[in-house]
Each structure stands twice: as structure tokens, then as C-alpha cells.
Amino acid sequence: MARLRITYNSPVVLTFALLAVAAFGLTHLVDGAKLWFVAWPKLVDTRSYVGLFSHILGHENWQHLIGNFMLILLLGPILEERHGSSQLLVMILLTALFTGLVNLLIGDGFILGASGIVFMMILLASMANVRGGEIPLTFIAVAIIYMGGEIVRSLRSDQISQLAHLAGGVAGATFGFMTAGRSRHAPKAAKGSTQAELQRILGSKSK
Fold this sequence. Notes:
Elements: H1 11-29, H2 46-54, H3 62-83, H4 85-106, H5 115-125, H6 137-153, H7 162-178, H8 194-206
């Protein structure tokens, strides 16, 4: 029987999760540390610039952290396998920056958490089967359910930033269209036609 071993199978996603846990501990143990892990409504000092990216590591409480990373740890490894670690890392960082910039332009408060990354991954995963000139019905359904729901909830006053969710969803849909039909492990096109190759093989076997 082959020996089983634990592997660091999804380095970007797992490192992201570990950094978020470390940031959670830091912000709850050190006074003022939380201001390094939020997206600010305006740029005022070094913390506000760092926060354009680092806000995806900050979380209000343990339930907030667990809720986000249950989905990230579920979808992330699949997306990392499909798109590659480097490309997924770029997507995460660009989504964080986009969310932070949107908050600067139209937000009115501090935002934190990886919810935008969750929505980016949900929309990106729903576009896995996109082909040239086609839009999967599953993508439309996901967009309506998740994005439509966030638009409706944005009309209510609560403690959840629908702005981050919508920004993440827009980023995920954009990445999905940009990478449509491309996969890290997509097979290379075979030389010659499949039919000609099949005839060659059958011909050699009949001799």
C-alpha cells in the first residue's frame, strides 16, 4: 500500500490563508494594527496605501475569517491548478487593488476582509467552460444570484460591504473572459487531422 503524505498542494491559496490568520491574530493582539489591514476611504498616510492590498487579510472576527476562507480553500486550489499559481496571485492582487480603488472613489468608510476575493473566485470558476462566442448559462445564473443579491442588499443599511463583493465579482468576470478557453494544462493541438492519424494507426495494424 502506497504511503500517504501531506502536500502543500496550492501554495498561493494556502499562503493567503495563513497570512490572513496571522493578520487576524496581530490585529487582535496589537493596538492600532487593524488600520494596516483595511481599505481606507481616502489616502492619508502609508497605512492607507498599504491597505489598498492588505485589506483582504484583515477580518472583523473569527466567523468572518472562517466564512471567507471556507470558500477560498474550496475554490482556490481548483483555480490555481487551472490558471497556475503566478496568474492566480496576480488576479488576487489586482482584485484587492481594484476593490481598494473603488472604495476610494465611491466608498464612505473602511472595508476589510477577503469577501471580494471570494466573489472573484466564484465568478471566475463559473466561467471555466467559456468558449469563443459563447456564454455559459451557469455564469448568467451565478451572476444573477450573487451579484443581483448584493445589489439588492446594498439598498439596506448593514455592516457588510456589498461594494467589495460587487468589485470582486466584476474582477472575476473580467478575468474569466480574458482567460476564456485557456488553461494551464490545455493539451497542445495534434499535428495533422485526427482522422488521418486514426487511419494511419488502423492501417499499420492490418498489415
